[in-house]
Amino acid sequence: MIPGKESTIQFHGFTFHRNAIVVALLLCLAGCVANKPYRTQVIPLPETLERTTAPATLPDTTYKDQKPGIVLRSGDVKYDLAYIEFDDMGEYWTIGDLTGRHNVENDSQVERTVRLIQLRQKEQEPLAVITFIHGWKNNASPHDEKDGNLKDFKETMRKLACSDPSRHYIAVFIAWRGQVIPNNYFSSYWNRRSAAMRVGGISMTEALFRLMFVTKPPISPTIANRCGNHLTESDYPTVRRDPVTGKGLAESAIAGVDTQGAAVSPESQPRSFLKDRFVVVGHSFGARVLERALSQPLMALLYERQSEAVACVQRFNALNPKDQLSNSPLFQSPADLIAMINSANDSFETKAMIEGMARMNLSSCMGTDCRRSKDPAYQTPSNGSATNPLPSNASAAHPLIVAILSAGDQATTIAMPLAQRISYFDQNLDRKYDKATKAHEEGQIDVPKQHTFFFHNEASIPQLISHTVEPESVPQCDTYPHFSNGQTCFVLRAKQALPNQFVNTTPFWVFGVPSSVIPNHTGIFQPGTVALLQMIISNAMESSTPLNLTLKQTVKDSN
């Protein structure tokens, strides 16, 4: 026997470590979580919601047997629920009919979810589509419906819909194989970390942007709408169509057989789309999936929309020399909120997005005349009062993306950096950022070593923090920027800048919260968490106009 070779086995030219084989066999004996979908069943539904020839939801026995991909609101359930599932390689479990034929019986889960949104847009109620991507150790199985993220998500959506009866909510649960080994074995961390990168691939990007664009259809800045400064209902199409396929909304909009085979006719009463909202939340590895799927195309989309708005303003001003628009044009935000909670991901993509938004000089706000606020989220109180942290017009301040970290999250603050160190030697992270250029004077993120971003998520790096959350006693705790966990009132306040320090003033807000708001890594479905997110999007929900992006007020060069 050759010394040092006892622990390896040669097979067809490959070398296997005996210990690794033993561990793999033991894990297989312990049982694996199946790589399969759980919610692909298509159940025939009424041709329209108004025609109750069939039940809006299914009996419990049928539901348990069939596990339908879509269940409509009925009785105590005040929202619709849709599932979109991905396999371990990031592909849809339901690929669908790719011939272009209208065949709802064989449509993919994402196609049926798009039609659900279209179906609800036939009604007069404002619409909110809340999409959630779960993290490690979860999926869309019946087990998770009893004791997992799926159970908590459904209960949270029920409370949210009940608290806002004037709006119709659609919950979209995006599921993947969050665990391969039951009983929470830590050894699957690296396996699921890699899987999250695959799941956050092209199909996930397609799904998120399709849901986003069907909920908030893109509106081009034109001379008629003053380059997006004054949107009206005429800017929206009368007949709703899938922005990807161009299909009209069929009467049997979700499932079953299309007996009519025709697009929907225009509604007799016009419906407002200006108040429709889209929110997507990712937790843990789900935040890794979300960031991977959105970061690159979202940056491209923001640049495109900003370029269109700038070009439109130039054309408008050339045609209207006596009625000039601002040189800081508004443009439509693709989503109302993208939230990452306790992200189990390194912070390289966040760093790149914050830097990219800083280069674009971006700010976000509500309404059409956002520039009046002069970026109020980053102004200090005029009277120095702690109970008045923002000026009266601060309701204009609003993020596009938030990254939130619990002070009690030991999984990402302690365990993740240790796990990342095991992969450290596979990376080339030795770069030291050049401090000779005085990074803070050029507005750069003043972190000296590159590997810092690999070991930690964004909310664990002080230089990326944009806001703070602190307890504060006020007469009313339900007005922006305050929220309550049911016992304590908190205020979300812009971080005060220190000399020679990078200040994140982009629409990508990063901050931590006390453990009384989010207790730990997994306990995200808490009253404080929901209240915090509700507070952040409350302006977007209540406003008659959508979230816009614009240029920040800049400091003039003294030279």
β-strand number: 16
Strand order of the largest sheet: 3-4-6-5-7-9-11-15
User: Per the principal axes of the C-alpha atoms, what is the gross shape?
Assistant: globular
Strand content is 5-15%
Helix-strand sequence: EEHHEEHEHHEHHEHEEHEEHHEEEEHE
Largest sheet: 8 strands, mixed
Unreliably modeled segments: 1-8, 11-17, 20-27, 45-66, 248-268, 371-395, 554-559
Mean pLDDT: 77
Distance between the termini: 76 Å
* Number of alpha- plus pi-helical segments: 12
The rounded Rg comes to 25 Å
Helix content: 25-40%
What class, by secondary structure content? alpha/beta
Which labels suit this protein?
3-stranded antiparallel β-sheet, disordered N terminus, alpha/beta, 12 helices, globular, 559 residues, disordered C terminus
Layout of strands and helices, then pairs:
Elements: E1 8-11, E2 14-17, H1 18-30, H2 60-66, E3 70-71, E4 79-85, H3 109-120, E5 127-133, H4 142-147, H5 149-163, E6 168-175, H6 189-199, H7 202-215, E7 277-283, H8 285-319, E8 331-332, E9 337-341, H9 348-360, E10 362-366, E11 401-406, H10 410-424, H11 451-455, E12 467-471, E13 482-484, E14 489-494, E15 508-513, H12 527-542, E16 547-551
Helix pairs in contact: 3-7, 6-8, 7-8, 8-9
Give a written overview of the molecule.
The protein is α/β, with parallel strands linked by helices and 559 residues long. It has helices at 18-30, 60-66, 109-120, 142-147, 149-163, 189-199, 202-215, 285-319, 348-360, 410-424, 451-455, 527-542, and strands at residues 8-11, 14-17, 70-71, 79-85, 127-133, 168-175, 277-283, 331-332, 337-341, 362-366, 401-406, 467-471, 482-484, 489-494, 508-513, 547-551. The protein has an eight-stranded mixed sheet with strand order 3-4-6-5-7-9-11-15, with helices on both faces. The radius of gyration is 25 Å and the shape is globular. It starts with 7 loop residues before the first strand and ends in an 8-residue tail after the last strand.
